[in-house]
Every structure is written in C-alpha cells, then in structure tokens.
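Q: My labmate handed me this sequence with no annotations at all. I'd like to see what the chain might look like in three dimensions before we decide whether it's worth expressing. Could you predict it?
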Amino acid sequence: MEKLIEILEDIQPDVDYATAENLIDGHILSSLSIISLVAEIEDEFDITIPAVDIIPANFNSAKAMMKMIERLQDED
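A: Here is what I predict for the chain of 76 residues:
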C-alpha cells in the first residue's frame, strides 16, 4: 500500500489517500491522471490492468486500487 500511496502522491499531491474514498466521484483524479496511474501501477506491481477493470469502483480509493492490484497479482 505504501508504494501505491507514493505513486498517487506523485501524480496528484495534497490528497489524503489513506482516507479518501471519492477519488473519481469527487473529481480528485482526472482522466489523464488515471491513464498515468494505470501505467505506473502496471510497471510497479508487474501486472496488466484490463480495460474492464478501469472503472470508478476500482479507483475511488487507494484501498480499492490495492484490492484490484492484489486480485490481478493472484490471477497471474
């Protein structure tokens, strides 16, 4: 989770990612931020995020992102 928070802070600083649960719904992360985030997550965690997983529910919080990352790592 710590590395994910670092990635998020590099893309969009000044957000409390430990507690934020509306990163998409609250327009905290833009679509361009999501594209960067997907690339960074794929590189850092050695996974591929399929297009069907790029949905608000998976990116609204760091916790949701980590859950998706762990699921995709388990599928490999």
